[in-house]
Amino acid sequence: MKIEIERQVVRFISSLSPESRRALRQALRALEDEAGDIRALEAELSGFYRLRVGRYRGIFYYVQRGSVRVIRCVYANDRQLIYEVFAQQFYRLLDK
Questions:
Q1: Secondary structure (DSSP) of 8-28
Q2: Between the CA of residue 84 and those of 28, 51, 68, what are the distances in Å?
């Protein structure tokens, strides 16, 4: 399985303290084996999944490209902000 990470996720991770940065990077690597605290999102965010790493969350979804299954990590932020901000950005993309 391959993991693709959006720029926002890379920028967010680089803004964290070294130990938080290390924990998030390790959790993203573990996604290759579908390991970690993963849950499917519901309602309007159905089809997306969240990865919990302490107080941080990552949002991702699965894509099938030929015989390869890809995980696209599209957003990461603090637990208090992630769902509201991601939903707003998601809807903005749909309106384009």
A1: HHHHHHHTS-HHHHHHHHHHH
A2: 22, 16, 31
- Count of residues making up the chain: 96
Q: How far is CA 38 from CA 35, 91, 94, in A?
A: 8, 23, 25
pLDDT in tens, 35-79: 999 999 888 788 999 999 999 999 999 999 999 999 999 999 988
Contact 39, 47 (CB under 8 A): no
pTM for this model (two decimals): 0.82
Tokens of 38: 């993963």
